[in-house]
Amino acid sequence: MPLPRPSSQPPAGGAALRLLPGLLGCAAAVGLALAVHAALPALPAMTAAVVLGLLAANLPGAAGWSAGQGRAGLDFAGKHLMRAGIVVLGLKVSVVDVLGLGWPALLLITAVVLAAFAGTYGISRLFRLPPPVSLLIATGFAICGASAIGAMAAVRRIRQQDTVLPIALVTLCGTLAIGALPLLVGPLGLAPETFGAWAGASVHDVGQVVATAQTAGASALAVAVIVKLTRVLLLAPMVAAAGLHHRRGADGGGQRPPLVPLFVLGFIALAALRSTGWLAPEVLAAAAVVQDGLLGMALFGLGSAVRVRQLLHTGTPALLAALASWLLIAALGLGAAVVLIPAG
Question: How many angstroms separate the CA atoms of 29 and 203, rounded?
Fold first, then answer.
């Protein structure tokens, strides 16, 4: 009687042990990122998480760990925890609050997002960036930063390593907005509410929007958050449309991608739940902590794959494309803000 052949698959416990070093490193990085944000409120915790990932990938000693023992867990965080964070992000979106802007404002913000998406994709292709990278940059810049990049990469089956450059660029330009936009309030003569609408319409990540708008006071921040969450709400239809297009173009002989990925459905379901008003403030606060933890771990994992030397060697066209796109979106957002909040 022949002996059974050993399985080529590692046992579940062994796979979990392989993930553990990287996941523990991600968790520690999130704690440090939150501490940095507490000390420097102008620096969003998610931006700090990406920066810490960059340091882990490029500092002697840490670079060996991130490329070796920690890599499996870091990759797991960058892919799976990113999707989980996008699901929980749905609890930040209240359809009731968004509809409170009125249909003209909603149509204007939608037009800005579509123009920013098309313009950024066109600029990226003009600088001869590959179509998948151009698509991810356009998605991140137009909608909601790294979360949108992760969602689009998932539905279009884009390799995780191709998300690294777009996330680095969207983090860089969002951080640039935190410093640059408040300096323009005086020269442009913007009222606080108009500045808040501008930040919400043009800054990439939710945390970066908050960091930018709060410099002009509570009224600016309130407007910025609603305008930004309107952009976030567009994540689901745009990603679903991209997934449908990809599904139609998929080879019929292979496995076709799902019509709408489960994590996008989860995002929609939690946004609908938030919109009912049933959830207590304590629940929403706890969900925000969970979301920060998941996305922070994911962004640290993705940042840890960026080798600065390689980025500087190959990323000049991408950097120029990102800066041109940032200027385009800032101009579109400013125009929308002036229309949304007319001068009193």
Answer: 24
